[in-house]
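Practice problem: predict the structure.
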Amino acid sequence: MRRDSLRSLALILVLLLGAGASLRAWRARTSTAARPQASPQGFYSVHVDLAGWYEATPYEKVVAGPYDLRFDALPSSLPLQIGPWHGVELGPSAEIESFFAHPDLIVRREYSGPSGRVIWLTIIGSRGPKSFSIFEHTPEICYPSSGWNALIEDAVAVNLKYGAMNVRRGIYEHGRERQVVYSWYQWDDPARDAAKGVTSWRLATDARDGLEEAQGHLHDFLGLLFHEVFPWHRF
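Answer:
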């Protein structure tokens, strides 16, 4: 009996040591990815994903770019001149204030390219309990409820300079108008703590002159915000 007990105790000790090592490795990996510092290339990293309600999906990535897009840095850290795109502020929105429970951060801009192409950028961010309202008002809900027909709603990969990030894509039609919308959620670190906040990002452009061209412009613009995907996995 004593020998069996000793063997059982030894087995439990081995399992505990293994679990402890795994936990330390997970924390080390998470801690490394969580640090919102510049990469060797001088880039800033954030966590992006496609699901709401703080759910992690296989699309979760750590992406980096030349602009500090963390919650507290916005909006001043995002310039009005991004590559060849010149932006103007669109000002406050009563609808956003109401639907999103008076969010802590609202950025609404219109960026125009050299060819006259326009991209609309919307960033909405909140902390605490009201941050959950961000997940209640998505393009998949807002466009159809405003009279637009959904032609395509899926997830697509956008190639960056190094690696690819995923975004939600929506193609919507209203009469003779057609728009392509890319959207994603963004956190400063992998903890996804509601107290630290979450931001919802949307890029939209007109697609009457063709989906391929419209999406090409969105890809180009997104490639200016983010240049690379860092190697990181939650599990």
